[in-house]
Amino acid sequence: MERFLNRHKDRIAGSISGFDRMRFQGTLPWMMFADGMAKLLNSQGVLLKEFGGYAQGLSKQIIAHAERVSERTGRPIQYVASPKTSKEQLARKIAKDDGIREGLICVLTCVEPCQSFKVIKDKNQKRLKLVGHRRQCLHLYFYFLDCEFGLMHVRLQSWFPFTIQIGLNGREWLARQLDRHGIDYEKHDNCFTRIDDLEKAQQLMQQLDQRGWTGWLKQKAKEVQPLLSRNCMLQHRPYYWTLSQSEYATDVLFNDVELLKAAYPHLVQHAVQHFSCHDVLRFLGRRINGRFEGEIRTHQGSRIEGVRIKHWVEENSIKMYDKAGCVLRIETTINNTTRFKVRRCVTRRGRKVMDWVPLRRGVVDIRRRSELSMGANRRYLDALSVVGDSTPSHRVLDSVSGPVYVNGSRSRALRPISPEESRLFQEILSAEHLLQGIRNTDLRRALFPAGQSDPDKRAQSGRITRSLRLLAAHGLIFRVPKTHYYRITKKGHLVMNTALHFRITQATLLAA
Questions:
Q1: Is the CB of residue 265 less than 8 Å from the CB of residue 259?
Q2: How high is the pLDDT of residue 512?
Q3: Tens of pLDDT, residues 83-125
Q4: What is the mean pLDDT of residues 4-31?
Q5: Contact 160, 54 (CB under 8 A)
Q6: From CA 30, how far away is CA 24, in angstroms rounded?
Q7: Edge-to-edge strands, sheet with 327-334
Q8: Would you say 472 and 479 are in contact if contact means Cβ atoms under 8 Å apart?
């Protein structure tokens, strides 16, 4: 990311990164499956044939509680008939019309699909059986103007298993933090077009990663779910909280609209033409190997704000678009955390060990999710840093066209557009090696055919070792300490990419 910011330092005021939209989900794990639901009914003395009436009675309690909250606060409760109606826009309109500054705005109700249960007749065993079932039920949306998070909502499913969703926006939270610290800013929708103290704002934004979410989420659930109150069914059965979807955005704030307007078409064109499937996997921190069988897609489309380009890797995505005319946003959305890894203590054969395991959806792994998302945004911006480089090609290649001396030892000049070194550059720049690095073994397998005898392998390995030392002497790569891996430097990216592009460019274009 620093490469992109340095390239455009005269055009931008800075950048800020952090969570944008966050959607938490509260579930009762023991109630999510038919066996757990059956045990609950048994503990309450409810027969399967009475399940419908029992569930309907609890649903009426939840709806009656919402009506009491509406009456006590003097806020409206309104049924939304069409799924095309934006509930957020409706809530904003009600808040504006009624002059709401804090607290409950309204309660919106609508019928939506949900995962629940039903009782069927098992003809083989000749008895009733409880099974999972996709159905529709009434959902309650409580919209608040929260003192910390601004406009947010709590969505409660009124039928078993009473799932709760809480949606909020990290940028709304930051705006209130800036107000408290006396930092002036300009905000458009959910992005900032100006912040007087970007460094302090970034420090505040990082507090969301370290926040203790469980207690706050539990309190919000109690406000809308009457079955969590004292002496009720769920009093001693707390919800398990996950971050079901997160959007982590990096905003680059340009000094004015015209500067971004001039640069953005070139960024979009480069992303469409040059970002391959391997590149998209690399952005999202995924390894490239033969076991990957998922789907990778890229889509370019027009929105009200402008042109957006979006890349999907299975359920997760990364996208780029311009906001408010002067903000370039790179945004990583994680819907399925199991595609990523986290290093933590686990039990293996009865022993506690540190290992890389799938990332959990629970709020306990929010900090790691932030690291992964930030890494994806940085890699995307780094890949865009080559766009619009005004440095003449000869000046880039001249820097490696002469011999260099390292610790008194002379290394020859590079021949950057020769067939041999171009093939070496192409393999080193391959996307599958950009995350961890490249080894002598990787280059030998790629550059030389298989089936060679051991003496040939040793000669090939020695030849590649000398090539790697030559590139390191010219500052194009460096060796990772205590490993056999080499990684590319900033100079290496620029020189090798320039040489490869120069080699494949048509002579007629050069003459023009």
A1: no
A2: 47
A3: 889 999 999 999 999 999 999 999 999 999 999 999 999 888 8
A4: 92
A5: no
A6: 18
A7: 77-79, 103-122, 127-146, 150-157, 164-169, 12-27, 240-254, 327-334, 316-323, 307-313, 296-302
A8: yes
Question: How many Cα atoms sit within 13 Å of 301 on the Cβ side?
Answer: 7
For the chain, which residues make up each domain, given as ranges? 12-241, 393-511
Cis, bond preceding 161 (omega within 30 deg of 0): yes
In the predicted model, is pLDDT for residue 367 greater than 80? yes
Regarding beta strands 191-195 and 351-358, do their DSSP bridges make them parallel or antiparallel, or are they unpaired?
unpaired
pTM assigned to the model: 0.81
- For the stretch 295-318, what's the b/e string if a residue is b when 16 or more beta carbons lie within 10 angstroms of its beta carbon? ebebeeeeeebeebbbbbbbebbb
Asked if 141 and 110 touch (Cβ cutoff 8 Å), the reply is yes
What pLDDT is recorded for position 378? 92
CA angle 430, 339, 363 (to 5 degrees): 130
Which tokens belong to 346? 């686990």
Backbone angles phi, psi at 262, to 5 degrees: -75, -35
CB 251 within 8 A of CB 323: yes
How large is the angle between the packed helices 170-180 and 198-205, nearest 10 degrees? 120
From the candidate CATH numbers 1.20.140, 3.30.70, 1.10.10, 2.60.40, the one assigned to the domain spanning 393-511: 1.10.10
Give 374-393 pLDDT, tens digit per residue: 999 999 998 888 776 556 77
> Which DSSP symbol is given to 402?
S
Q: Measured between alpha carbons, how far is 82 from 170 in angstroms, rounded to an integer?
A: 28
Backbone angles phi, psi at 69, to 5 degrees: -60, -45
How far is it, in rounded angstroms, from Cα 286 to Cα 432? 9
| Six-digit token string for 187 | 């905000």
**What percentage of the chain exceeds 70 in pLDDT?**
93
Which residue shows structure tokens 């998922």? 294
> Taking the CA of residue 82 as centre, how many other CA atoms within 13 Å lie in the half-sphere pointing to its CB?
4
Token pair for 151? 């406009």
CA nearest to 76, candidates 138, 143, 139, 137: 143
pLDDT tens digits, residue range 252-274?
Answer: 999 999 999 888 988 988 888 77
Q: Which amino acid is at 73?
A: T
Do 363 and 208 form a contact (C-beta atoms < 8 A)?
no
Half-sphere CA count of 131, side-chain side, radius 13 A? 9
Contact 157, 239 (CB under 8 A): no
Please state, as a whole number, how many other Cβ atoms lie within 10 Å of the Cβ of residue 200: 14
Look at residue 370 and tell me whether its pLDDT is greater than 90: yes
